[in-house]
Amino acid sequence: MLFTSAISVNAAESPGMAPDITKEIVYYADGSYATIETTVYGGEGYIQPMATAKLKTSQRTYTYYDSSDKKAWDFTVKGTFQYDGTRVVAKSSSSSYNVYISGWKCASRSTTKSGATVKGTARFEYRGAASKTVTIGMKCSKTGTISAI
Fold first, then answer.
1. Rounded to 5 degrees, what are φ and ψ at 129?
2. Is the Cβ–Cβ distance between 147 and 137 less than 8 Å?
3. What is the pLDDT of residue 17?
4. Angle at the Cα of 49 (from 45 to 91), degrees rounded to 5?
């Protein structure tokens, strides 16, 4: 059983001057849950000198909490996109993670970029008894709209 809820955080009064941040919460049947925070940098308020192509960077962070409400680990995927209204391409991708509870480890991690999409997958294991695999990412439209995948 999986439940989700979303919260939108307006980071600034003027659009584009500060990152746009959205947060969602995913609840799992065993009492654990995760928050997924999406941050988009760039936009009309950012100065991009005399260029027709614009850049936008986004990151998504998946933070996992165990059934005791303790933060166990997080996984972040970051991508930079170049767009000009007629085409878009993912220019770079990266991922990182943190482990907060002893016994958890990141067993594997990969990041890919293809076309206008950046995606990352990580598998976390807890002392060989439990594991969690998560895939998060984002895509960019030709006009610079970032959406989660």
1. -100, -25
2. no
3. 60
4. 85
Distance between CA atoms of residues 142 and 135, nearest Å: 24
- What would the two tokens of residue 7 be? 């919260």
pLDDT tens, position by position, 14-27: 444 688 999 999 99
The span from the CA of 29 to the CA of 36, in Å, is 17
- Distance between first and last Cα of the chain: 20
Question: What tokens does 83 get?
Answer: 């767009």
Q: What is the value of pTM for the model shown?
A: 0.84
Give per-residue burial for 110-137: e unless 16+ CB within 10 Å, then b.
ebebeebbbbbbbbbbbeeeeebebebb
The band of 65, judged by pLDDT with boundaries at 50, 70 and 90, is: very high
